[in-house]
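Let us practice reading a record.
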Amino acid sequence: MQKLVVLKLDGDLNEGVKVTLEIGAEGDRASMEVQGYLPPKPEIIADYQLWRTTYRSLANFRITPMNIHVGTSLNEHLDNCRELSKKLSEQMNSWLNCNSFRPVKEKLLKQLTLDDTVRVLIKTSDTWLRRLPWHLWDFLEDYSKAEVALSAPEYEYLPKPKTSTIGGKVKVLAILGNSEGILIDKDRELLQMLPDAETTFLVEPQRSQLNEQLWEQDWDILFFAGHSESFEDGKSGNIYINQTDCLTIEQLKYGLLKAVSKGLQLAIFNSCDGLGLAYQLEDLHIPQIIVMREPVPDLVAQEFLKNFLKKFSSGESMYLAVREAREKLHGIEDKYPCAVCLPVICQNPAAVPPAWKDFLINLQTENSKLQINKYKTQAQLRWRSIQVVLLSSLVITGLVMGVRALGLLQPSELKAFDHMMGLRPEEKPDSRFVIITIDEADIQYQNRIKMNMRWSLSDQALAQLLKKLDQYQPRTIGLDIYRDFPVDSNSADLATRLQNDKRLFAVCKVSAPLDGAPEGTLPPPEVPESRQSFSDFVADDNDIARRQLLHLTPPLTSPCAAEYAFSLQLALHYLEAQGIKSYINPQGNLQIGDVIFKQLKSHTSGYQRIDALGYQVLANYRSLSSPQNIAQQVSLRDVLNNKINAELGELLKGRIILIGVTAPTTTDYWKTPYSAKAGPNQKLIPGVFVQAHLSSQILSAVLDHRPLLWWWPTWVEALWVWGWSLLGGILASYIRHPMRLGTAGIIMLVSLFSICFGIFTQAGWIPLIPAALALVATQVAVVSKDVRSL
């Protein structure tokens, strides 16, 4: 009997995983559901990372067009890789044999028989859970007809595939990309041997050629061989289509969506490190995807493809064909360890895996269906052509939203955002903060009294500063200065202070090659990891910091392993003293007290193209005459020389003290949304003031109910743009006089800006530029249509 087993995993290896088991007959709804739990097991991540590093040092893979050299002792590397794989398997099975997971296993044992054909879907969006080799689960060893696949937790039900196979052949589009240093001719030979198949080969194509094939032809199977790689977040990647061009799946999005709508059923990426590619392909609702979990040597890729195609084209089910082809790789593991772990199926749960015969359809029947669809489309077009205004508004709205989705409107929308930021009513500085500045005079002061200077703040000056601050009893102290060196041996008290003072937080910098800092910066050695935080900002293309990065997962090679932002750490420590806690809510958003910090993603209001780095929110800067007026300031030398008056001393009590460099020689200067209207000397402000703004945003939202910036869902924005487009069309259809129509258009644009700015003062960012474009463009389209009809 054919069974479908779905394991929905909510959580991660660090926090624990809630498990929901569903079992049902293939093609039917699940007949039962069972809950279980898997406790935190971060050791699995560490073991996987260690195995992965060792495995990737072994051979030349299909990952990028370059050679990866092996060390002197190959046998030792091979043995080490096998041992680490074995340890990873033991850790996984120990985790899966825990008592809290026992109800799930017992239900599986009760419902499945050894003769059942079983598809096991692992539904999760967590990167590490997707990377795990689930086929190593010892429970599955007894089920010879079972195979595991990955699945996204969110998916869409797919309509019945529309195919147009010509001449009863299975249509295969085979992309043979950059083959520098690898052998992919064997892949071509294997595809040419497929029975009842018509394969079109694109050898190192240009992007335009590939896009044209996806749009213009109907395909059953998409195949890629060549170099590829996934990004570290496991949610995207590159394929190298020729000697000079590499593409992400996002860059092929519309062509692939078109191919799916026309019947694409299976995508095979016989290339390296494909889980990130699969993650993006799943978003496009490709029914079945086969990728390689990690980098793959040529022989492994060729052997898997040969055995899979042989079984699949002979009538075996896709899942069992993958399992047999994968298990046959065990025969070459003496030279290629862990080869069995590489092939992975990624499945849309709404689709039923096809058999080879399912691709072979009757051409006459299909042509009839296409003809019927053609008549329906023509009838729809005839009806729509009558409705000039409605049609024009819909088309213009679609074009504007399409251009917007491509990111072409993002620069203008961000400029409009900055402009409205600068027009907002002024607010008061945040009295919870005091900033101790270190300017050029403070640096010279330290030199004059012969302090041992290794950076802008010497050990002696820092020790004296912290000691003097003690008498004012601040609640939190943030040191926004890099100290990637140990405290001098003559300052033992400072080392003890840095290690034990739970109020003190320090910064480091995560490795960021694109920002010119590929090595990153170490945290102070004496500060415990729990009080280390990254100082990194996220700047847009015009170098303006409009987004606040709250959390990220640093690269494994980064010297800075901090996962939480400096501004967030300061705010959370301040709030904890008032009993306010933070957590991740069921929707995956950060919640502090009763305030939800909604995560910023691509296609969020004016952002259509942003990096996927970590957990980001929009930065709602405090509206001030100058961003540097965020808080009371005092110089380092004034504190060291006891020049703090009683009023300022009282102000320091129970406050957040930020210590940072403001000297013009520092590189820690940033643009803000206020830079456009600022004077020549205020376009860039020191990073310590930006940190104060970002931390103040969190505290103000939680304690003062100051609103966070919010935006509409994409569908509401589309309706908004369509409404203004429709209004422009109505005006053009009723007002024929050009001067009057122009005046009405200007009035509508002024009204649009007034509405958008009014909502912006209440922290709402709604589309201004797209709505204005749609309004004007629809007026022009309707007028042009009327002129042509005369």
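A brief commentary: Residues 66-72, 162-166 have pLDDT under 50 and may be disordered.
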